Automatic annotation (TrEMBL):
It comes from Danaus plexippus plexippus. InterPro entries: DICER_DSRM, dsRBD_dom, RNase_III_dom, RNase_III_sf. Keywords: Hydrolase, Magnesium, Metal-binding, RNA-binding. GO terms for biological process: apoptotic DNA fragmentation; pre-miRNA processing; siRNA processing. One of its GO terms (cellular component) is RISC-loading complex. This is Dicer-2. Its cofactor is Mg(2+); Mn(2+). GO terms for molecular function: deoxyribonuclease I activity; metal ion binding; ribonuclease III activity; RNA binding. The keyword Hydrolase applies. Residues 393-415 form the DRBM domain. Pfam families: Dicer_dsRBD (PF20932), Ribonuclease_3 (PF00636).
Length: 415
């Protein structure tokens, strides 16, 4: 049995010291550190910290041989091993995270103006587009261009504009933006504005930005993972659809729905009324249209959440890009859930499913669909009523698809 044996930490210390000495010798002789590749020094040299005459002689002989070697090409490696000296492998995600962190740092320190500046410096957005001017630029509407009157817009809104403005606590300067925000593609009576899709796209980005900024500044005691989960619980189609039903805004949606969509909206409204419009954690596990391609599984019609996002986009444009004013309206609607969820961050569906040990869930490999709008499908197999079942979740990326699959599994397990 060996006694007084040192741990590997001690050996590592000696090895590190020997490398420093050897590199120091290379520096003194003005030769490359790669010169040492393949050279082995005796343990005695490592323990003493000094090169023995034999080791120095070995280096001298190797140095003579290296004089015959070709000169190292500029900017290129002379041999296969040398390319790894001084190099560090970094994943694409790490680089992307670093870029995002830099943009966030500029946003925190200098506001939106500085954040846009670094985006232009990274060439993420072209500097010649003068992006900042778009934030406050007045947009042309059918009323400002004289293509429609306020009376015509009010008629298309079924004379409910004042009721909607009272619910939101915001009075529109240009009612045509409100009409566009509430117009479904099926609303053929409206021949003046587009349907709500463009405003919904804008509102989605604004809501994500405002809610993320608020929880970052006011929920500092949460870990990065909890902040991500909190944002996911607040920024999603189920949450936004719940607000629309709670406020009664779905009654003012300008559309000519088909029977399937009408029934889906009616079912969700009744579900929320039974819960007294309280947004519980279980509500977040309801199935959205983007989660699957099977109509009978859908619990939350996307059209409801689209209303919330399009109204946000409409208020942003109508106010001249006033984010403070928009947030004042949004916070009045969402403040209860922001406070409650920050006190107890809702669990993500994947975590809830994995904690159901009796279900023995197992996620499969993802695959892409061959369709006009490609989606990622992720299967999950689980045990229900003594039998193994498999469902597929759909999403624009693997993470969303996995979450959708978990929600589908939870729906079946709840029956």
């Amino acid at each position: 049995m060996r006694v007084n044996a040192e741990s590997y930490v001690t050996a590592e210390l000696f090895t590190d010291m020997m490398l420093k000495i050897a590199n120091g010798e290379c520096n003194e002789c003005a030769i490359r550190p790669t010169f040492l590749i393949g050279v082995q020094f005796p343990v005695e040299d490592a323990l003493s910290g000094n090169l023995s005459p034999e080791s120095r002689s070995l280096l001298q002989e190797k140095l003579k041989d290296s004089d015959l070697a070709e000169e190292e090409p500029f900017g290129k490696a002379q041999n296969a091993m040398q390319r790894y000296v001084g190099a560090q492998a970094v994943s694409d995600k790490s680089v992307a995270d670093c870029v995002e962190a830099l943009i966030g740092t500029y946003l925190l320190s200098g506001g939106i103006t500085d954040a846009v500046s670094i985006l232009e410096w990274f060439k993420i957005i072209p500097s010649e587009d003068k992006f900042l001017s778009f934030l406050t630029k007045k947009v042309n509407t059918v009323i400002s261009e004289g293509k429609a009157t306020v009376q015509e817009v009010d008629w298309l809104l079924n004379s409910c504009r004042s009721d909607i403005e009272t619910i939101l606590g915001y009075k529109f300067k240009d009612p045509s933006l409100l009409l566009e925000a509430l117009s479904h593609a099926s609303y053929i009576r409206n021949r003046y504005t587009r349907s709500y899709e463009r405003l919904e796209f804008l509102g989605d980005a604004i809501l994500d930005f405002l809610i993320t900024a608020y929880i970052y500044e006011n929920c500092g005691d949460l870990s990065p993972g909890d902040l991500t989960d909190l944002r996911s619980a607040l920024v999603n189609n189920v949450t936004f659809a719940s607000y629309v039903v709670r406020l009664g805004l779905h009654k003012y949606f300008c559309s000519q729905f088909n029977g399937v969509l009408e029934n889906a909206i009616k079912t969700f409204v009744e579900h929320q009324e039974q819960l007294d419009h309280v947004l519980l954690e279980d509500v977040l596990y309801l199935i959205e249209e983007e989660d699957c391609n099977i109509a009978q599984y859908i619990d939350v019609p996307k059209a409801l959440s689209d209303i919330f996002e399009s109204l946000t986009g409409a208020m942003f444009l109508d106010s001249g890009g006033d984010l403070k004013l928009v947030w004042k309206v949004i916070y009045r609607i969402m403040h209860k859930e922001i406070h409650d969820f920050s006190m107890k961050v809702p669990k993500q569906p994947v975590r809830v499913l994995m904690e159901m040990i009796h279900a023995c869930p197992s996620f499969g490999k993802s695959r892409a669909t061959e369709s006009a709008v490609p989606k990622i499908l992720v299967p999950v197999t689980f045990t229900h009523a003594g039998q193994r079942q498999t469902v597929y979740g759909a999403g624009s990326n693997k993470t969303q698809a996995k979450r959708a699959a978990a929600k589908l599994a939870l729906k079946i397990l709840a029956t």
